[in-house]
Amino acid sequence: MSVERGADGPGSWMEAELASQPECWLRAARLASEVAGALPRRGERVAVVGCGTSWFIAQSYAAAREAAGHGETDAFAASEMPAGRRYDRAVVLSRSGTTTEILDLQSRIGGLTPVVAITADGSSPVARGADAVITLDFADEKSVVQTRFATTELALLLAQLGHDITGAAAAAQRVLARPVPEVLTSARQLTFLGTGWTCGLASEAALKLRESAGMWTESYPAMEYRHGPIAVTGPGSVVWMLGAAPAGLSDEIARAGGLAWPGDDEPLADLVGVHQLALALGRSRGLDPDRPRNLTRSVILARP
Questions:
Q1: What's the pLDDT score for residue 292?
Q2: What helix, strand, coil percent values describe the chain, rounded to 5?
Q3: In terms of pTM, does the model score above 0.85?
Q4: Which of 4, 60, 102, 270 is 20 to 30 A from 196 (CA-CA)?
Q5: DSSP for 147-210?
Q6: 165-177 helix and 148-160 helix, angle to the nearest 10 degrees
Q7: How many whole angstroms separate alpha carbon 192 and alpha carbon 45?
Q8: 12: pLDDT confidence band, cut at 50, 70 and 90?
Q9: Does residue 6 have a pLDDT over 80?
Q10: Which of 129, 189, 143 is nearest to 291 (CA)?
Q11: Tell me, what's the pLDDT at 298?
């Protein structure tokens, strides 16, 4: 799938890419059965590894896999995976396939742990260093900011666990058809909360607003919000729950002066709403959401 930058200025790549997510998810769900042999098998002990957005997607998949009873699953930032810990399989997530920390990790565990790479470029260094490769080139992006690639790889992984991606895609279409609420674009500060596999989504949601809009955002497991973070809540604060909120939490947010924003029944679709908000805020601040300040499409570190 090719997306060309439009004539309407900043954000046009990101806008087209985020709008294509439901279609990409459905394609990934169909692909899941074809690549099942490369993905972790039930009962395997698995490490899932990424950097930035891919680390948060790794967290979501790890929690979802354990919750589905498929086996012990740990998620690591590539630079922090413990040395010497043994796994039956490692899943490395890298859109570009060039990220230095992923390549360093592959060098460390090569020959010890079978590695499957999920990437947008099947000819990349990360792909060449893996034992198996799943290429999602149809979800690749021109924007520095990840939207559809990240959610598409998660849709693939969730589909393999039995999640209903059809329902998530339909919910995302409904989200895309709605305007971004003014109460969100006027917020002074946003906090994202999750439980279980949506904790990773909450972290990714906060990252999107920091990247595209330079927005002050935070993210926490929902029950941890009471243990300190609620202190920053007040007028102009929006607390966005991805997934079901714990009982009584919305009332506590209201008493603190904030607005509890209920999540969609389909958390993946909710993340699409965050993408729309990030795009709108970036444009309103005169920023180019496609090319965030101080960021590049891939982090490639200079060797000493």
A1: 72
A2: 45, 15, 40
A3: yes
A4: 102
A5: SHHHHHHHHHHHHHTT--HHHHHHHHHHHHHSPPPHHHHT-SEEEEEE-TTHHHHHHHHHHHHH
A6: 150
A7: 30
A8: confident
A9: no
A10: 143
A11: 60
Q: Which two tokens stand for residue 66?
A: 């354990």
Q: What is the pairing mode between strands 132-135 and 89-94?
A: unpaired
Residue 77 dihedral angles phi and psi, to the nearest 5°: -65, 140
Residue 148 structure tokens: 């559809």
- Paired with 193 in beta bridges are 220, 241
C-alpha–C-alpha distance, residues 150 and 54, integer Å: 7
Contact indicator for 22, 166 with CB cutoff of 8 Å: no
Distance CA 17, CA 146 (A): 9
Phi-psi region of 269 (alpha: psi -120 to 50; beta: other; left: phi over 0): alpha
**C-alpha to C-alpha distance for 187 and 80, rounded to whole angstroms:** 34
Residues of the chain with pLDDT > 90, as a percent, come to: 80
Q: How many CA atoms lie within 13 A of 284 on its CB side?
A: 16
> 38-57: per-residue pLDDT in tens?
999 999 999 999 999 999 99
218 near 191, Cβ under 8 Å? yes
Cβ(215)–Cβ(191) under 8 Å? no
Instruction: Please report which helix (H) or strand (E) contains residue 256, including its range.
Output: none
The pLDDT, as a whole number, for residue 304 is 54
Domains of the chain: 12-160 (3.40.50.10490), 171-284 (3.40.50.10490)
Burial class (CB in 10 A: 0-12, 13-18, 19+), 97: buried
CA neighbor of 18 nearest in space, from 269, 241, 207? 269
pLDDT digits (tens, 9 = 90+) for 231-285: 999 999 999 999 988 899 999 999 999 999 998 789 999 999 999 999 999 999 8
pLDDT of the residue at 84: 84
Please report, as a single letter, which amino acid is at residue 108.
Answer: R
| Count of residues in the chain | 304
